[in-house]
C-alpha cells in the first residue's frame, strides 16, 4: 500500500521580493494622487469658507445702502468729526480698546470676533480659518487667532482721515476685497511685524503659502511652486488666484497703467497703488 504524499506549496524568496516590489510601486503611484486629493479637498474647503465670509459681507452691504463693512483698519471705525469713544465694529471683530492689545495680546477673547459684522450674520467661527491654518507661531498678531483671511485696506483708502468704507457700487465686481494672507515669518522679515495685525492689509502683504508653494527666497522674496490662494470679490464670488496672477495684479498700475483688481480706490492716485517693499 502506497503512502499518500502531501503536496506542499509556498512562495520562493524571489516571488516574495517581486510581490513586495509591486506593492511598493503601487504605493509610490497612489500616494501623490492621494496627496493631490487631500490638497484639493482643503482648497475647496478654504474657498467655501471665503464664500461664506463674502455672503456675510454682501448681506451687510445690502442692509447698509451698499456700503461695505469697515475693514478694521486700525481697529474699530471712529469718525473724526463726531465724539465716538466706542466706534463701529469692522468686518472681523468689535473691539473699542484695539490700541490696548494690537501687537501685544497673543490670545484675544472670542467675544471680539463674535461682535464682528460678518460673524453677526453667520454665527460660525470655523468659516474664518483655512483647514490648513493650524500654526500659532510668534509673532503672529492678535487676529491670527480668528482668521486666515484679511480685508483689502484700499476699501477704506488705507484708513484715510474721515473715510468710511466705499460702497460696493463704486467698485467693479471683480475687485478683490478679501484674500488668504501670507504667513507671519515672511511679513516679519519684510516689515518687522506680523500680517495678522488689525484685520486689514496692503495688497503687497501677499497670499498664503499653504497651497502649493515650495518656499520663498529669504533674499529676494521670490516664491517657488505653482500654487495660489482663495480671494473674495466685491460681488460676493470667490476665485482661486495663482501666485503669478496675483503678482501681475500687484504690478499692473506700473506695467500696464489702468485698473488693478487690488488697487482700485476711486479717490487715490493710481487706485492707491504703491511699490512693493524690498523682498516682496
Report on the structure:
The chain has 280 residues and is α+β, with helices and mostly antiparallel strands. The chain has five helices and seven strands, in the order αααββαβββββα. It has helices at residues 13-63, 110-114, 117-122, 184-191, 243-255; strands spanning 149-152, 176-180, 200-201, 213-216, 223-225, 228-233, 238-242. It has a five-stranded mixed beta sheet. A hairpin with a 4-residue loop joins β6 (228-233) and β7 (238-242). The mean pLDDT is 82.
DSSP helix fraction: 25-40%
- What is the CA-atom radius of gyration, in angstroms? 25 Å
Globally, the shape reads: elongated
What's the quaternary structure here?
single chain
How would you characterize the largest beta sheet?
Answer: 5 strands, mixed
Summed up, the domain count is 1
The arrangement of helices and strands along the chain is HHHEEHEEEEEH
- Helix count, DSSP H or I runs of 4 or more residues: 5
Distance separating the two termini: 91 Å
Overall mean pLDDT stands at 82
How many strands? Answer: 7
Query: What proportion strand?
Result: 5-15%
Strand order of the largest sheet: 3-1-2-6-7
Q: Would you identify the regions where 5 or more consecutive residues have pLDDT less than 50? A: none
Which class best fits the helix and strand makeup?
A: alpha+beta
Amino acid at each position: 500500500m502506497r503512502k499518500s504524499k502531501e503536496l506542499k506549496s509556498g512562495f520562493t524568496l524571489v516571488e516574495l521580493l517581486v510581490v513586495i516590489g509591486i506593492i511598493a510601486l503601487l504605493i509610490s503611484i497612489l500616494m501623490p494622487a492621494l496627496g493631490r486629493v487631500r490638497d484639493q479637498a482643503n482648497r475647496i474647503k478654504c474657498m467655501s469658507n471665503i464664500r461664506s465670509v463674502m455672503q456675510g459681507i454682501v448681506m451687510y452691504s445690502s442692509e447698509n445702502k451698499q456700503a461695505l463693512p469697515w475693514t478694521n483698519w486700525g481697529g474699530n471705525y471712529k469718525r473724526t468729526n463726531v465724539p465716538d469713544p466706542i466706534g463701529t465694529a469692522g468686518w472681523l471683530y468689535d473691539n473699542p480698546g484695539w490700541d490696548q492689545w494690537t501687537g501685544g495680546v497673543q490670545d484675544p477673547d472670542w467675544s471680539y470676533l463674535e461682535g464682528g459684522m460678518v460673524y453677526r450674520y453667520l454665527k460660525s467661527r470655523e468659516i474664518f480659518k483655512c483647514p490648513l491654518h493650524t500654526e500659532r507661531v510668534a509673532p503672529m498678531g492678535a487676529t491670527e487667532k480668528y482668521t486666515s483671511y484679511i480685508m483689502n485696506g484700499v476699501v477704506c483708502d488705507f484708513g484715510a482721515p474721515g473715510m468710511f468704507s466705499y460702497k460696493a457700487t463704486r467698485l467693479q465686481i471683480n475687485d478683490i476685497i478679501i484674500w488668504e494672507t501670507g504667513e507671519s515669518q515672511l511679513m516679519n522679515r519684510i516689515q518687522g511685524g506680523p500680517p495678522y495685525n488689525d484685520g486689514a492689509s496692503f495688497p503687497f502683504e501677499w497670499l498664503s503659502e499653504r497651497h502649493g508653494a515650495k518656499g520663498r527666497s529669504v533674499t529676494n522674496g521670490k516664491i517657488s511652486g505653482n500654487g495660489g490662494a482663495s480671494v473674495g470679490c466685491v460681488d460676493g464670488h470667490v476665485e482661486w488666484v495663482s501666485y503669478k496672477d496675483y503678482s501681475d495684479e500687484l504690478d499692473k498700475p506700473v506695467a500696464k497703467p489702468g485698473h488693478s483688481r487690488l488697487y482700485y480706490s476711486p479717490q487715490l492716485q493710481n487706485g492707491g497703488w504703491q511699490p512693493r517693499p524690498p523682498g516682496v
